[in-house]
Write a structure and sequence with these properties.
single chain, four-stranded mixed sheet, six-stranded mixed sheet, EC 5.3.3.18, isomerase activity, 265 residues, Enoyl-CoA_hydra/iso, ClpP/crotonase-like_dom_sf, 2-(1,2-epoxy-1,2-dihydrophenyl)acetyl-CoA isomerase PaaG, globular, alpha/beta
Length: 265
């Protein structure tokens, strides 16, 4: 695609999505949102896709919203930023959490504002050792969006989330790891190969069951213990009826590697 702001390709069951505005640190404009939405539609509808890998082109992962698209002078009416959140960012985060396939995020540089929230909305986040995370909204008189105010307290804890949101300090990849915001830190030179290998391994696993795990984990944030126990029962029932469960048990007793189809039946 000419002027592709999102690059995507499928290999070995992995849909790799690359944010492709390196000259703007992969910050979002409306067209980039539209192209990312199209790529996620492929992830949702194509059964050959069993894992998604999201990364950025160039030296940054994503700097959030491109402020050139939201600039306003003193003699203009203020923009409705809530409309942008409702139209683009909220649907994006909801789609990522609802996608019944694992999502790996390779944070190859700075992840700021909505870019940091995008990373945290993925299921497994691996960052380069030179990457960083910034909640930059406070510098503009704004509020963390794209789920940032939901993910941060749950991942890093209330005190750290408040510090990040109110001070806007840059957090290193290693610090993000120690705070529980991400899964792993690797050398920048190894990030692409490492995350591709991880995604390809996930693509060989029981995809339907991994989708059930996602549902259980995300539901736990709002469920009581009793509700979560009931949900676990219901999801376990579904998993136990799947073709991959039958294959997993058969392979276990035959002492052979399983050959998962990734399908429910």
């Amino acid at each position: 695609m000419e002027n592709a702001l999102i690059l995507s390709h499928i290999e070995a069951g992995v849909l790799t999505i690359t944010l492709n505005r390196p000259d703007r640190l992969n910050s979002f404009n409306d067209e980039m949102h539209h192209q990312l939405s199209e790529a996620l539609t492929v992830a949702e509808r194509d059964d050959s896709v069993r894992c998604v890998l999201i990364t950025g082109a160039g030296r940054g992962f994503c700097a959030g919203q491109d402020l050139n698209d939201r600039n306003v002078s003193v003699d203009q009416a203020p923009p409705d930023l809530g409309l942008s959140v409702e139209r683009f960012y909220n649907p994006l985060i909801r789609r990522l959490s609802a996608l019944p396939k694992p999502i790996v995020c390779a944070v190859n540089g700075v992840a700021a504002g909505a870019g940091a929230a995008l990373a945290m909305a993925c299921d497994i986040v691996v960052a380069a050792d030179n990457a960083s995370f910034i909640q930059s909204f406070c510098k503009l008189g704004l509020v963390p969006d794209s789920g940032g105010s939901w993910y941060l307290p749950r991942l890093a804890g209330h005190a750290r989330a408040m510090g990040m949101a109110l001070l806007g300090d840059k957090i290193s990849a290693q610090q993000a790891l120690e705070w529980g915001m991400i899964w792993q830190v690797v050398a920048a030179t190894e990030l692409a190969d490492h995350t591709q290998s991880m995604a390809k391994q996930l693509a060989t696993q029981p995809t339907y069951g991994l989708g059930l795990i996602k549902k259980a984990m995300y539901s736990s944030a709002s469920n009581t213990l009793d509700q979560q126990l009931d949900l676990e029962r219901d999801l376990q029932r579904l998993g136990g009826r799947s073709a991959d469960y039958r294959e997993g048990v058969s392979a276990f007793f035959a002492k052979r590697p399983p050959n998962f189809s990734g399908k429910q039946s």
